[in-house]
Amino acid sequence: MARLAAKAVSKTYGATKALRRGDLEVEAGEVHVLIGSNGSGKSTLCKIVAGSVRPDNGELLFEGHPMVVSGPNAARKIGIGIFYQELSLAPHRTVAENILLSDLPGGVFVDRKALNTKAQRYIDLFKNVTGDNFHAGAIVETLRPDQRQLVEIMKALSSEAPILIFDEPTSALDRAQVDRFFEILRELKDDGRSIVFISHRMDEIFALGDRVTVIRDGETVATKRIAETDAAEVIRLMVGGDETLTAAEPHQPTAVAATAKTVLAVDALSGDGFGNVSFNVAAGEILGLGGLHGQGQSAVLRALFGATPPTSGTVLLNDKALASSSPRATINRGLAYISGDRRRDGVIAGRPILENVTPVHALKQRLSLATPSSLREKAKPALEALRTKFAGFSHPIGSLSGGNQQKIVIARWLIDRPDVLLLDDPTKGIDLQAKTDLFQLIRKLAAEGMAIVLYSSEDAELLGNADRILVFNGGSVTRELTGADRTPFNLYQAAYEAA
């Protein structure tokens, strides 16, 4: 009998089906790996089991008995602990307080000595790999990313739960830390604990797992014993076919002629989150940046734009050196940057649509004064090209849907055509029709000679639109896919096996 079972679990957010049918059975004394592409439903299934998300349908069983997980506290009482991919630490509290956060007493009277002594048990598990200045009394916000990740792992371990879920726990850890963590998990498995482990790294899956469950497009498609499968079969299950699969989108990009002028040349670029990245982009070319999420793709684009300037390397724009010292400087040289995080990098909250669509135009044209009517006339062609739906320029940006807000952000860069368009996961959180409109326009801009660099967390967007795809891992380019090599299998293989 499985210790934990999820049967036909589903979850929908509006029109988005995050999980169509999630099935999972976890035995006592095993490490059960969950794998699937970005957005396949892995994390949603785990959050449902851990009580932080309520399912729409389906059944959860603990040791054969139905269970209702009304929230995280209820899950902990049942015996389920979880490490969340998005760290849930209290930055102003100490390491010890964060490790024992769920059991921390209220009020100001806390027995610090007893608290630190109890937390030290979990800190000692990672002795010699935590790094400098890591101790029970250290404030979490002063720690490095890898140290904060260790605190989150320790917090999950402190639950002493018979079922532990780890959602990509090794993403920020170094090799020594990963090795020690795996030793701990093997010891827990030998003690009879059940471990659910989400990872994108094939080496981790085959080094640690006993069984693997593959989720594709929100549905559990297979469970295999690790000893009876291999990386190629797992990737085929994730893709949904064989190695000859072609791009999922109907549009097949046409390769840019070898004689096309190089617009952007990047050589040995390094910075925060990436190193020694080199590539060229020609006029009329869409260059895709692929690979698992957070492997340096966004960091490279932000560095080129000057949001986080690079530390070394050279960039040529139209054969002249580009100093990515600030966004203002790169905008004036002909770069445009569109982020999928429109709240952070896009919309000007609380302001009218006209003010949101025209600031780049005002900067590039050095406008000190301009009439609203003249600005409206400048903005209309770009908005119409994107089929933007809005009642009037004076309406607040917040009155629009997410997709139309993103169209406003994109349109602001197209009033005065840039030489290079940097797209940083631009369709994140927008509807299918808005995506379709955006990519139709992107292909049209490329056909007119614009150089475009596209990072997308959705593989189908890259396969359907990019002439070439550079696969990133660990902050560097590990493989280039061109022509007939641009298939889902090759993209998955490059991303996951490189990992």
In DSSP terms (H or I, runs of 4 or more residues), the helix count works out at 18
* Tally of separate domains: 2
Number of strands: 20
Overall pLDDT level: 86
Task: Please describe the biggest sheet, giving its number of strands, its sense, and whether it closes into a barrel.
Answer: 6 strands, mixed
* Form type: globular
In order across it, which strands form the biggest sheet?
6-7-8-3-9-10
Quick one: CATH superfamily of the largest domain? Answer: P-loop containing nucleotide triphosphate hydrolases
Class of the largest domain in CATH? Alpha Beta
Could you list the spans in which at least 5 consecutive residues all have pLDDT below 50?
A: 242-251
Distance between the termini: 34 Å
- Quaternary structure type: single chain
Structural class: alpha/beta
- CATH architectural designation of the largest domain: 3-Layer(aba) Sandwich
Fold-level CATH name of the largest domain: Rossmann fold
Can you summarize this structure?
Keywords: ATP-binding, Nucleotide-binding, Repeat, Sugar transport, Transport. This protein has 18 helices and 20 strands.
